[in-house]
UniProtKB/TrEMBL annotation:
Domain of life: Bacteria
UniProt-annotated stretches for the region Disordered: 25-44
Species the sequence originates in: Streptomyces broussonetiae
Protein name stated in the entry: SPW_0924 family protein
InterPro entries membership: SPW_0924-like
Amino acid sequence: MRALIAAAAGLLLAFAVVLALTALGTPTGETSPKPLLTTVPAHP
């Protein structure tokens, strides 16, 4: 019975964290203007 209560408490805690992060919204930020390197440079 204790395991069931612990599982329910964990589920509620996870749900509360998701709701809190959703309430905060997306962070204001910018993407980098520089493109990422997708190829490995040639070795000498």
